[in-house]
Amino acid sequence: MKQPVHYMGVGIMRETSPCCNHCRFCSVGQKTFHNIPFDRYERIVERFLTWKAEKSLDNFLVSPIQMYTYATMPVKQLVRRFRLCELGGYTPLPLQMNGLIFMPEDQLRDCLLEKKEAGFTKISLSFAGMGNFHDTWVGRRGEYKFLLAIAKIAADIGLERLEKLFLTQSTIPQLEPLMDVLNDISGTVERQILPLVYFGWAKNLENERITQEMLEQLPEQISKYAMVENLKTEQQWIYLLRNGYQDESLNNKHLMLKLREDNIDKLEQESCDEIITGLKAKYDRVHTALPEMREMVGMYGESSNLRLYMLSELEKKWTERYLKDNPQINMADYLLG
Length: 337
What we know:
Elements: E1 6-17, H1 38-54, E2 61-68, H2 75-87, E3 95-96, H3 105-118, E4 122-127, H4 131-138, H5 143-157, E5 160-167, H6 172-183, E6 189-195, H7 212-216, H8 220-223, E7 232-233, H9 234-242, E8 252-258, H10 264-269, H11 272-289, H12 293-300, E9 308-309, H13 311-325, H14 331-334
Parallel strand pairs: 1-2, 1-8, 3-4, 4-5, 5-6
Antiparallel strand pairs: 7-9
Helix pairs in contact: 1-2, 2-3, 3-5, 12-13
């Protein structure tokens, strides 16, 4: 019998902060923007937080999500967003600096100082590689140099850094010299080397995924930062699934409530129960219509594929292929979970 979905929480999303990059590995893909005033966004989040407390939903996460480069948000709004995160028991991610509009270093220093005063203690910088290689992958000339300037100013004013580097077939030769450059910048640093995730535009980069053989041949300087837990080849996952392997965590979903100009008036009139019930009903219909993972293996699994994935990525990859083949099932409803 097919297991029901376990809903872990809801993300309330406001898509108002532009990103100046056009990354070929962007996890979002095609961006959309909606003119949603912060006051209205804040009131909806507060209403859900009150609803959560009244219903004693301690394990149901209410996440205020700001897209895309929220380093551009006014400081007062950032402070208010921090308050929403604290009320919801949600730890804000480090301040993502990629895609920030270029500015002179004196303005950049003032910008980072403002963010520190707003409560941020750590910034996040993502690198595809060095120099022109990075700039080509993010679709903006000069961003590599700009990110290094941000890192140096952050170190000078006491902001920690989360450095994210990408682990792909093309980027592997870039990683060691890039880390040498970053190691010369002072400050407190957390570093992650991340494989591609099957989301957004990165779905078009399947040929860039590394194989098990490539992973085993990585130098120690790279492998010690590589976030590769739970990765297996598609071939290995198929073997496990065909032999009865099940992962119940695949049924854990977070609902997504996107605030748009064409739905916010209605959302402000509906109760939180009505909104959540409506989102669940839409996703449940999709879940009920989908085959079991073991069935999709036979439909879409590629036993010869030696590239590495998390099982959740293959679930997404196979499900989207099934939805494309079965357009009577609403893709938009699938994306709610």
